[in-house]
Amino acid sequence: MSNAPTPVSDELTIGVVSEIYPNQCNVFFDDGTKRLCSYRRTIFDKNAEWRERSPVSPGDKVGVKILGSKDGVIEKVLPRVNSIHRRAPGREGQLLHTLAANLDAVVIVSAYKEPDFSPGFIDRFLIAAQKAEIKPIVVINKMDLRTDETDRPWALYEEFNILCFPVTTKDVSTIEPLREFLKGKTSVFCGHSGVGKTSLLHELFGVSVGKVGAISKATGKGKHTTTVSTLVQTPDGTRFIDTPGIKEFGLVDVDPKELIQYYPELWELQQKHEPYEHLPRYEIYMKIKAALEGEGR
Ligand SMILES: Nc1nc2c(ncn2[C@@H]2O[C@H](COP(=O)(O)OP(=O)(O)O)[C@@H](O)[C@H]2O)c(=O)[nH]1
Ligand SMILES: [Mg+2]
Predict the structure, then answer these.
(1) Ligand 1, atom 11, residue with closest C-alpha
(2) Backbone φ, ψ for residue 175 (5° rounding)
(3) Extended beta strands in 88-148, E state
(4) Ligand 1 site residues, Cβ closer than 6 angstroms
C-alpha cells in the first residue's frame, strides 16, 4: 500500500470523512493524516426528494483540494455504495440524517440491562440495515449484569439467523469473537445512549473516541441533543463509526405495509393470521406465537 494520499486528479485527493461539524468536517487520508475540510454547499442535490442534514457523512469518500498543511476543501463526494439513515429528529419536513456511509456491517448494540434490552430499537435498525442491504449484527453488552444464566432475550434473533454477540466490557475474553468479526470491515455502532458503545470500542480497538453529543439550541423550540458520529481507523484498516446518543430512530422510505416482508418467516405465518404490520417485530412474533399456541390447545 502506498503511503502517499491517493490523487483522483491533478487537483483532488481521495479521503474518508471522519467527523461532521456545522460547516466543516475531518477527513482521513491514506497516509494516516487528517485534515479539517470545508465543503461547498453546491454539492447538495437540490432536486432530491429528501434533503440531507449535512452534505457528507462519516464513511463518505470525498475528493479534496488540499490547502496548506492542515486544511482542505471537499469538491466532490464519490457515489455511496450504501448508507444507513433516519429521519432527522426535531426537524420538520423531509430531512434525512445519514448516520454513516459505505458500510460492511451495522452493529446494533443493546444492553442486557441498564438500560433495558430493547427489541423495538433492534427491530428498527434490522429493518433499516436490510433495506440498505448491509449485514446487521446484534451485540448484547453488560452480560455481567445477568443473574439467570438461562435468560437469553436475543435468542429470537438467532432463530432468524442474525449473528448475536453477548459480551461484557468487564471480561475481554467475551469480546474476542466480535473483534474477529469486525476485523478489516467498516462498521457503524448504533444503540441507545448508555448501552456501552464507546466503552466497547475502547476495549475492542484500544482507541478512545471523544465524548460528543453536545447540547445545542434548537431554533425556537428549546434544546435538543445533537448527534455527531465519529469514524476511527485502526492501523490494520478496520474502521468503525461511533454514534453517540441515538434517542430516536425514525425509518425512512419504509411503507408500514411492506414492513413484514423484511421478515420472511413472519410473512409466511402472517398469511394465516391478522396483519400486524404496525407493531415491532418482537411484538408481532409474540402475538403470532400466542395465536399459534392458542390454536394448538
Ligand atoms: N456493568 C457494565 N457496565 C458497563 C459495561 N460496558 C459499559 N458499561 C458502563 O455503561 C455506561 C455507559 O457506557 P458508554 O460506553 O458511555 O455508553 P454509550 O453511551 O453507548 O457510548 C458507563 O458507565 C460504562 O462504564 C459492561 O459490560 N457492564
Ligand atoms: Mg458513547
Answers:
(1) 194
(2) -95, 0
(3) 95-101, 105-111, 135-141
(4) 141-142, 144-145, 168-170, 191, 193-199
User: 0.85 exceeded by the pTM?
Assistant: no
* Cell numbers at 253, concatenated: 422510505
Q: Whose CA is nearest to atom 6 of ligand 1?
A: 196
Contact 73, 38 (CB under 8 A): yes
> 193 CA distance to ligand 1 centroid (A)?
9
H helix intervals, the chain: 119-131, 155-159, 176-182, 197-205, 256-259, 264-270, 281-296
DSSP-based three-state secondary structure for 247: coil
Task: Give, for all 297 residues of the chain, the pLDDT tens digit.
Answer: 445 555 555 689 999 999 988 889 999 998 888 999 998 766 666 666 677 888 899 999 999 999 988 999 999 999 999 999 887 776 666 778 889 999 999 999 999 999 999 888 888 888 888 888 999 999 999 999 999 999 999 998 898 889 999 999 999 999 999 999 999 999 999 998 889 998 999 899 887 665 432 323 333 222 333 457 889 888 888 999 988 766 666 666 666 666 666 665 665 665 555 555 555 666 666 665 665 555 433
Q: Among 173, 199, 203, 211, name the best residue to mutate to test ligand 1's pocket (greatest count of ligand atoms within 8 A of Cβ).
A: 199
For residue 229, the ligand closest to its alpha carbon is: 2
Which residue's CA is minimally distant from atom 8 of ligand 1?
196
Whats the size of the chain, residue-wise?
Answer: 297
Alpha-carbon span 158 to 79, nearest angstrom:
34
Task: Kindly give the number of the ligand 1 atom that is closest to the alpha carbon of 245.
Answer: 19
C-alpha–C-alpha distance, residues 178 and 182, integer Å: 6
Minimum-distance ligand 1 atom for the alpha carbon of 170: 27
Backbone dihedral region for residue 133 (phi beyond 0: left; psi -120 to 50: alpha; all else: beta): left
Cα(267) to centroid(ligand 2), Å: 36
